[in-house]
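ok so I'm stuck.
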Amino acid sequence: MRTVKLPFYLLIGFNLLTLLIFISGPFTSDSGNHLLAIGYILVNLLFIWWGIKSGLRRGYKTTAIIRRYPLSDVSNRILSIYMVFFVATFLIKYAYELNVPVFDISGLVDRIIAGIFDPLLGYTRDRSYASYSWSLYVLISVFDGVFFIVGMLCWRKLSRFQKYLFVFLAIIESLKSMSTGSSFGEIKMMTTLAMVYLAGMKNETIEKRRVGRILLYVLTIVFVTLLIFGHNMEGRAGGEFSDMTVEHFNFNTDSFINKYVISLFPMRIQNLYVYICHYLNNGYYNLEYAFNCKFEWTYFLGSNDAKSHIFALLGFDVEPLNYQIKIFKEYGVDPYIYWHSCYTWIANDVSFFGVPIVMYFVGKFCASALVMYRKHQDLLSGMVFVIFANMIIFLFANNNYIANLFYSFILVFPYWLFTRYFKER
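replied:
not stuck anymore, here's the structure
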């Protein structure tokens, strides 16, 4: 097996898994669009795979010397400066995201600890307080947003002390994410680690016995992720899973997988399965509702909430035009709490007819960036690969991944596009 294809088998395989669960009908649907949604998701996955195959061919045909371009590599001195900057600013960034005053370390620690031990409190806390100006937060986020991607890609260049510090900062980042009662931040850290590991494989081909070892690593990551997810969901359910906590999901107990597989397990595992299904599929069910809503163009400003927020501050609010608000008005689905799938968010900009085209280029850019990274050890291409790979992983959710590092993305991706992709022949 060619190792360059391994990440994409896993990316598409995971999305097919979420689709398989959706096909099994874990929840009841009243939209009338269940089969349409299944077909639509499958079409988009086919376009992604088409883009991946095209991107791999494009990448292997490149001949230009990328090493002459900035950010093809970074010196130990630059890495040290970057790490010092992150250490000096990450608490300021956390203060804004957790809505506590800047330099109130005790308040920040209390907020994190409270959220970890009471995920329901962390999930439902007031988020209206802004500790400082949004513009300063953007400036810090431009650099801090991709810190862990860069650190993982440059792991071998870090000194022993820097490696210990990096791991410590990664743990703090994960704990901060857990403090909000959400599993997204921890899962994002795990998926980034997995993609960096796969991207860094030096051999062109891999033996079958090593595939088993890689699968073991992947299953370990999945197991740890499930433990974190279970902790957060159980906390948000009031401290323990029970039949009452999952009834409001309208779970379909007669679904094939539940009836013949999941029902054989203890009740706690069954209830955890309900939450897993809801986590992976509620965006797809809300996608069904979107098909019943009228499209209104958001002027390419509605594909993620970070971008919409920027232009709303400038007096150009496109939020009333997006599908999430229309679904809320028509079906009562909260646009800020529940997921609507990445497909729906992108459709705000290009309509549902245009989403498969976007997915094609997402796959193409992702594959091209991976080949450029492996051929030239180009840091910037590695960053672009990890960003788009994570975007593909989280297609079942909102366009949250891009939104979380949007201020870095709007600089990193165009720079890669014009200095690597369009330059390569």
